[in-house]
Amino acid sequence: MAEHTETFRKHERLCSKKAIELLFEKGISVISYPFQVIWTFSNQDSAAPAKIAISVSKKLFRSAVKRNAIKRKIREAYRRKKYILYDFLTSTGKSINFILIYRDRRIPDFREIEKHVDDVLRKLVSSVSTSKE
C-alpha cells in the first residue's frame, strides 16, 4: 500500500457539464443508503484516477446552508477515505468519473457520514472490479 495523501484538489473534482450529463445517460448506478453513486469509466487521461461530484437534493433540503453543510461533511469524509478507491484504481490502471448523491432527509453528523462514505467506496470498488470497460 502506497503512502496516502489526504488532499482534495481541483483536478479530482468533476466539473464538466458534458461528463456529468454522460454519467446520468450511461452511468452505472450503485445504492448504498443514504447514498446513490452513478459512475462510468473515464476516457480522458487525468491527473487523478477518480473524479467526483457531490450532490445534495434541493428538494430535500430547501436551505442552501444545510445543503452546503452536508456537502462539506461528505467532501471531508471522501478526502480522508479516498485511498480505498485510489489504491484499487491505480493497481488496475483504471480511471472513473462518479457522482455521489445524498438521498436521506435528515442532517447526519460527521462520524455517520464518514462510515457511510467508507461503505459506499468499498461498494464502488467491487462494482468497478466486476464491470467490464
Write the layout of secondary structure elements.
Elements lengths: L16 H10 L1 E5 L2 E7 L8 E7 L7 H18 L1 H10 L3 E7 L7 H21 L3
Parallel strand pairs: 3-4
Antiparallel strand pairs: 1-2, 2-4
Helix pairs in contact: 2-4, 3-4
Molecular structure report:
The longest helix has 21 residues, at 110-130. The chain is globular. It has helices at residues 17-26, 64-81, 83-92, 110-130; strands at 28-32, 35-41, 50-56, 96-102. Strand 1 and strand 2 (35-41) form a beta hairpin. Strands 1-2-4-3 form a 4-stranded mixed β-sheet, sandwiched between helices. Helices cover 44% and strands 20% of the residues. It has 133 residues and is an alpha+beta fold. The protein is built from 4 helices and 4 strands; from the N terminus they run H-E-E-E-H-H-E-H.
Which features characterize this protein?
20% strand, alpha+beta, 133 residues, four-stranded mixed beta sheet
Quick rundown:
Helix content is 44%, strand content 20%. The chain is built from four helices and four strands.
Total helices: the number is 4
* Secondary-structure content class: alpha+beta
Strand order within the widest beta sheet: 1-2-4-3
Number of strands: 4
The radius of gyration over CA amounts to: 14 Å
N-to-C span: 24 Å
Shape: globular
